[in-house]
Design brief:
It is globular, with a radius of gyration of 24 Å. 58% of the residues lie in helices and 6% in strands. It is built from eleven helices and four strands, in the order H-H-H-H-H-H-H-H-E-H-H-H-E-E-E. It has 273 residues and is mostly helical. Helix 1 packs across helix 2 and helix 5 runs antiparallel to helix 6. Strand 3 and strand 4 form a beta hairpin.
C-alpha cells in the first residue's frame, strides 16, 4: 500500500521535473524575455476586475464546479465507496485532488483579474475524470436507484448549460468568411477569428484578446511590432456583427468606415470624396 508520505513527494517530484523540462523547451523556442513577459509581467500588471459582478454572473458555475466539490470531498472520503489506497483508481483520485487543490489559488486569482472568467478555475476538470473512473470501477457496489438518478442529474446539468446552443452547427457565417478571405488574400484581418485567414494566407495574425490584454497591462506592443503581425496589404478588419466594441480599431484609426452583413461587420478606409 502506498502511504500518503510516499504519494505526495512522488507526485510533487514528477510535477517539478515535467514543469522544468517544459519551461526549458519553451524558453529555448521563444526566449526568456518573451516567456517572462507573458507568464509574469502581464498577469501581475493586469488590473483587478469587479469581483462582485463576476461572482453574481457566475454564481451557478461557481457553486457547481468549485463550492460543491469542495464541500462534498470530506463526506465522500468517509464513504465506503471511496477507492482504497491499494488501488490504482485510489492513487489517481488522490493525485487529481491534490493537483486541483494546488491550482485552485492560482485559478481564483485569475478569475478575480479583469477579463478573468470561471474557466480559469480548473478544480472540477481534475476531479471529474477521476470520479468517473472511480464510479465505473465500482458500479456493482452502488444501490440501483443511485445510478439512474446520477445519470438524470448529469443530463440535466449538461442540458442546462447548453440550452442556448444552436440545434445544428452554425457554419454559415464561417463559410461566408472563408469566401471573403479567399477573395482578399493578404488584405483582411479577423481579430476574433484568426484561423479564417490562416487558410488563405497561411499565417496567423494578432488575436484581439492578446492585444487588448497587453494594453490593459500597460505593455502594448510597439507600432512596428503590431504591424509586423498583420496582413501585408491590410485594407479591412472584420468583426462578428454582434461585437459592438472593437478594440483594435483604436490602433488603426484610418479604418473608419463600416459595412455590415448579417454575420460580420467590415471596417475599411473611407474613400476620398
Amino acid at each position: 500500500m502506498m502511504r500518503r508520505q510516499e504519494l505526495v513527494p512522488g507526485y510533487l517530484a514528477r510535477v517539478a521535473v515535467y514543469g522544468a523540462v517544459t519551461t526549458l523547451l519553451v524558453i529555448v523556442l521563444f526566449g526568456f524575455g518573451t516567456v517572462w513577459l507573458y507568464l509574469v509581467q502581464i498577469p501581475v500588471q493586469l488590473p483587478w476586475g469587479d469581483l462582485g459582478d463576476k461572482i453574481s454572473r457566475q454564481m451557478i458555475s461557481l457553486i457547481l464546479y468549485v463550492i460543491t466539490p469542495l464541500l462534498l470531498l470530506p463526506f465522500a472520503r468517509g464513504s465506503k465507496h471511496w477507492p482504497s489506497r491499494k488501488t490504482e483508481i485510489g492513487h489517481f483520485l488522490r493525485s487529481s485532488i491534490l493537483a486541483g487543490i494546488c491550482l485552485l489559488p492560482v485559478g481564483l486569482v485569475s478569475f478575480a483579474k479583469i477579463g478573468g472568467d470561471v474557466n480559469s478555475i480548473h478544480l472540477w476538470h481534475y476531479l471529474a475524470p477521476a470520479i468517473v473512473l472511480g464510479v465505473m470501477s465500482q458500479l456493482s457496489e452502488f444501490p440501483r436507484p443511485i445510478l439512474p438518478g446520477s445519470m438524470l442529474a448529469l443530463v440535466f446539468l449538461v442540458a442546462a448549460s447548453t440550452r442556448h446552443f444552436p440545434f445544428r452547427p452554425a457554419t454559415g457565417p464561417l463559410k461566408f468568411a472563408s469566401l471573403l478571405a479567399a477573395a482578399n488574400p493578404g488584405a483582411l484581418w479577423f481579430p476574433y477569428n484568426p484561423v479564417v485567414m490562416f487558410f488563405s494566407d497561411r499565417r496567423l495574425y494578432h488575436v484581439e484578446d492578446g492585444i487588448a490584454t497587453r494594453h490593459l497591462a500597460g505593455l502594448g506592443p510597439r507600432q512596428a511590432t503590431f504591424l509586423r503581425h498583420l496582413p501585408a496589404q491590410l485594407t479591412g478588419v472584420v468583426y462578428p456583427a454582434a461585437h459592438k466594441h472593437p478594440f483594435a480599431l483604436q490602433l488603426l484609426p484610418e479604418l473608419n468606415s463600416s459595412a455590415a452583413t448579417p454575420s460580420w461587420t467590415i471596417y475599411t478606409q473611407k474613400s476620398p470624396p
